[in-house]
Structure formats: C-alpha cells, structure tokens
Design goal:
By secondary structure, the protein is of the alpha/beta class. The protein is built from eleven helices and 14 strands.
C-alpha cells in the first residue's frame, strides 16, 4: 500500500468520525470536504496523478473500471473499516476526481428525521405512487430508507428496491427485501420496473426517476396494485409535478397527467436549511394526492397545488413557507438561506 493510499484511508475514516458528509479528491487540486452544507479545504494536500491511480485501483472492481472507461463516470458503494461510502468517479478538465458520500452506519428511525418524518402518514397505502424529492444531498435516500425500515416492523410485505448503487442494506425482518443494483442486477430502470412487477412485490422502491420511460413504467406499476416509492431531483411540489409530466413526449402528456392524477398518493419535497450551532434542519413541503390535487393535475394548473397545501394542514399538508415558519417557531433555523 502506497503512502497516499494509507493517508487516503486516514482522511476518510477521520472525516467520517468528525461528522463530515462528503469528501472530494481531485487530481491537481486540494482535498475538500463538506460539513453541515459548507465546503472547506482539508489540510495542504495536492493530489497527483499517481495518488489518483492508487485510490482508483484500491476502491474499484473490474466492472467499475470498465464502466468508467466507457461512460467517463462510475457509481458504487465501498466499505472501509466500519464505514460505508457512496462513491462517484468522474472527469473534470480531463482529470479524474472522486466524490465520497459518508453513509450513516445505521438507518435512523423516522422520529429522528424532523419534518422529513412526515412521510410516515403515507405508510398504510397499498398501491399508488409516492414521490420523495429534493436537491442532491437533501436526505431523500435516508428518508426512504427510514420509511422502508419502519414499514418492515409493521407490515408483512415483499419490498423490492431498484438502486444505483445499493446504499443501505436492510435486515430481513417481517418483510422480505430484494435489493437490486443497476448494472449488476438489472440493466435500466424502465426494464427493471417491468421485471419487478413479475417478482410479486408489494412495494417497489425506485432510487431515481430520470426519464419518461421510467416514469411511465412507475405509473403502470402503481396502477397495477403496487405501492411505488420513488425519488426525483427536483425542488418543490409544483416543480416536481411539472418535471414529471415534462419527461413524457408532448403527445403523451395528457395521458400522463391522467395517470398521475389517478395514482399519486403524495409528494414530500425536502430542503435543508442552515440552523443553530452549525447543524442542518429539514423543511418538507407535503402534498396529499386527494381529489382536489387530482383535478388540478388533470387540468395542468399545477401552480394551484399551492392552495391545496395551504388549506390542507389538518390532513398533514404544508407548503415550504409553512415548513420554514415551523422551523423558526421551534427556534431551529438561524439563517435565511437554504443549503
């Protein structure tokens, strides 16, 4: 093991222990980290090409290397000591770079997620579509993992997950978990969703809806008696619905609106805010797919969903403005900016 390879492992372990969420290692640049949403430089490292190569050969398997050579990027999870990391290898300015996301050692219970725990109100649905949305790093994966872990203590289900990569490993309790990883267990989300329906799951979790084919397959699964939980990289509820429909070809968008209106059970849109003592707090916009929301979606008047959330507080709904006011009321929020 080379000198930097040992130092690289020390950097990751110490960063994980100190509450750092992300570590960035780039050829020809210093090491940077993110903690509580803020970036900072770590030490006086200047990463060489040899350093990058030593890390690359240390953490990758053959399929990762082939994937990187073909696509100029690769995604996988990697374990070091007692820690697990989601790794993204990419290129910038012709140089190789790594982004390491530190994964929690344990799946946190819903009651520890703050407002993100609002997803619990959707626990008893047996079919339809639930969307968990937010920017990268907003905690979508953790929220979904906590939701499924709680579900496994209450239900006797077969839960099938389609992930890229598998991040949290679920214990087999009352529920049977079938966790499938893109590239290893299935070749693409549209085909993976169709195949999943043949495997008799009660719940299908889709790590990310990226295109119209995946969205259409998710709606088909939701309409055929499966409870489908999926994430999207979008902002608030209105943006999520707009983005979902826009991924369909224009001639199919009327059908997509009708299918989404019939199948949507809810949307939880997460955003992290900087709070006191350097901590982060989650604000969540919540929409229930009730009759009012369904009619609005069918008509394509998505901006009117705001009024549904504003008037739906007794049903567990709230806008992001209402979420922020709750954070202020709890004296958790210290800055007027999102992370």
């Amino acid at each position: 093991m080379g000198a930097f390879e040992k130092e690289f492992e020390r950097i990751l372990i110490s960063s994980s222990q100190e509450g750092i969420s992300d570590v960035f290692i780039t050829e020809g640049a210093p090491v940077f980290c993110r903690r509580a949403g803020l970036m900072f430089r770590l030490g006086d490292y200047e990463i060489t090409r040899d350093d990058i190569w030593s890390v690359f050969t240390r953490i990758t398997r053959r399929e990762h290397q082939e994937d990187f050579l073909k696509r100029k990027e690769a995604d996988f999870t990697w374990e070091l000591s007692e820690w697990r990391y989601r790794v993204h290898i990419y290129r910038q300015r012709g140089r190789t770079a790594f982004a390491f996301r530190v994964l929690p050692k344990e799946i946190p219970p819903l009651e520890r997620l703050g407002q993100a725990g609002a997803v619990e109100q959707f626990m008893d649905y047996e079919d339809g579509l639930l969307l968990i949305t937010g920017a990268t790093g907003a905690g979508k994966t953790t929220t979904v993992a906590s939701f499924l872990a709680e579900m496994s203590t209450r239900k006797d289900y077969h839960i099938l997950t389609l992930e890229d990569p598998v991040e949290f490993v679920f214990p087999q309790g009352r529920c049977l978990f079938s966790q499938q990883e893109l590239g290893r267990d299935f070749l693409g989300y549209p085909g993976g969703i169709i195949s999943a329906m043949r495997e008799n799951p009660n719940v299908i979790m889709i790590a990310e809806l990226r295109d119209g084919e995946s969205c259409e397959a998710a709606l088909s699964a939701a309409a055929s008696g499966h409870f489908v939980i999926a994430t999207m990289h979008t902002g608030g509820v209105v943006e999520t619905v707009e983005r979902f429909i826009s991924m369909f070809y224009e001639e199919r968008q009327n059908l997509a609106r009708s299918m989404l209106a019939s199948s949507l059970r809810g949307i939880c849109a997460q955003k992290l805010f900087a709070g006191q003592r350097g901590r982060q707090y989650c604000g969540v916009e919540v929409l229930h797919g009730n009759n009012a929301a369904a009619n609005i979606i069918r008509r394509g008047k998505y901006e009117q969903l705001q009024s549904v959330m504003q008037s739906g507080g007794d049903q567990g709904m709230q806008t992001m403005e209402m979420a922020v006011e709750r954070l202020r009321g709890e004296q958790l929020r210290a800055m007027d900016r999102a992370i």
